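tool_call: predict_structure(chain=1)
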Amino acid sequence: MKEPTTQTLHPDAGKTNKVISLEKYETIKAAILEVLKDGDLSHTQLMEALYQRVNGHFTGNAHWYGETVKLDLEARGLIQRSKSKPPVYSRV
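tool_result:
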């Protein structure tokens, strides 16, 4: 039986994001939203916190999936990226 997948979105109009495992999407999405619950983080801080949260029980590259899901969550309006340099991510 084929594993369920989901088409992720991209915040930049005209760009297409990846089709990924639905289970991995849900795992990473929950981890990102949980990490950002405690406050805003830079990209580096977000990816490090995500890795720490899923390390040991996630199969696959947590940073790659993290970036893909982060872009999807931005496109869906669940998180936002500041215009500051460096950008900071927060929950909406």
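agent: The domain at 5-9+20-91 is CATH 1.10.10.10 (Arc Repressor Mutant, subunit A). Proceeding to next step.
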